[in-house]
Amino acid sequence: MPSRRSLLVTIAALAFRPGTAMAETSLDAETAFKRAEAGDLLLIDIRQPEEWAETGSAKGATRLDLRSPDFLDALAALSGGDRNRPIALICASGGRSARMARALTEAGFTSVLDVSEGMLGSSAGPGWIARGLPVVTD
Fold this sequence. Notes:
Layout: H1 4-15, E1 26-27, H2 29-37, E2 42-45, H3 49-55, E3 57-58, E4 61-63, H4 71-78, E5 87-90, H5 95-106, E6 112-115, E7 135-136
Parallel strand pairs: 1-6, 2-4, 2-5, 5-6
Antiparallel strand pairs: 3-7
């Protein structure tokens, strides 16, 4: 009979195997860029205008300040009212985007992803800018 530990290892391996039902919740900057360029997801830069001015935004991202009082309405409009459309959120280092991804999921959006390394990098990775991915400064 298998040990409890070996059963837990097997369950964990199955849960994280590609193609399983476990939903993805984050992605790296390079994958976000490729998917946004391909039209597979809506990339939203949720930082503040001062941050956009300082570093630019990820190419392909729509700027939408998370502090905006009409954030949810604006996001719904950008997604064409489709709460199932894949949306990726990016901030400076993944903290705000992770929190907002959870909040949007609770608000009924079904496919919200966090670009966990953000524009500037975090423990999840070097970040959009350090990876040399294109930015828009206008």
